[in-house]
Amino acid sequence: MEITPKYFYLRHVPYSMIRIMGQKQLSSTRFVLFLRNGAKRAFSGSFEMGMLKHNWTVDNFVAETPLALQHIKDCYSQSLALGPPSLAFSNASADAYLVFNTSSKQLFRRTSRPHHPDLKLLAACVDPVVQLKRMATCLDTWEWMEPSVLCNNNTSEKPCMIPVQYDSPVDRSLYVDQLRNWLCAGVQPQQILIRSTTAAWRNPNATLQRIADWMGRGSSYMTPNLAQQLGIGVHNKSQSAGREYPSATMAQIRTFIQPYDDALLELLGTLPFDVNVTEVASELRQP
């Protein structure tokens, strides 16, 4: 089990997994996703990311949050957004559309927008390289480049390059489009178990038992100290532990991400993820 949120956030990851593992192996892979309250995750994440800078403080977080929100407002809807509440959903030049048949309960991709009442449009799927290039163009950050296995590269002389994804603490909390991106890549909702970090911290034994059962491992999969490690990792190892939340900035973030949280809960309630929607809703709506 990997607990690295950036894998979930970066748009090329599921597509890279397909290239490396193959669609057949990926289709038998299971994913465990812990979701944390988005505003609190942004606050904590700012300190993790701020370790690259010296003397990162709460004042830095307060000062940089408006800039991060403005970047998302200016560029997110035309690059990384794959569905509501972004306006890009209505005019995206999508490669395909992710559609759910409410009668047959089947999820599939199609090349045209659906109009039948039984077909619910969930996402406009866009190639991840295109997403990143649009973001880079909007932010004028084409100099941020990294090698990628996503590209077709037939020469060993020069690695294939794609723009680095813009990364702020707040946009990592826009979970709904991140989940849509994994579904667009071909991962099925039945492959994903979703829990809240608060529930995991409060009852790590039950959380780990549910994961073990879901993976078909049973109690033999759990080591004696695994639950203790989970509780410590979720709660005590946070980079923001012991720091007071800046109330005005936190309220600003909560207001900004609420439409994305609402869209996430609708998606979780529509598709057959292994998820307690009430539990996740309680996490996302924490004050």
- Fraction of residues in helix: 40-55%
H-E string:
HHHEHHHEEEHEEHEHHHHEH
Count of strand segments: 8
Q: Sketch the major β-sheet.
A: 3 strands, parallel
Low-confidence stretches: 141-150, 152-158
Structural class: alpha/beta
Beta-strand content estimate: 5-15%
Lateral strand order in the biggest sheet: 1-7-8
| Terminus-to-terminus distance | 29 Å
Q: Shape from CA axes?
A: globular
Can you walk through the features of this model?
By secondary structure, the protein is α/β, with parallel strands linked by helices. It is built from 13 helices and eight strands. It has helices at 5-9, 13-21, 23-27, 38-50, 58-75, 88-91, 128-139, 175-185, 197-202, 204-214, 226-236, 247-270, 277-284, and strands spanning 31-35, 96-101, 106-110, 119-125, 145-147, 161-163, 192-196, 274-275. The strands form three sheets. Strands 1-7-8 form a three-stranded parallel β-sheet. Strands 3-2-4 form a three-stranded antiparallel β-sheet, with helices on one face. The longest helix is centred in the last third of the chain and has 24 residues, at 247-270. The two termini are 29 Å apart. Mean pLDDT is 82; it is low at 141-150 and 152-158.
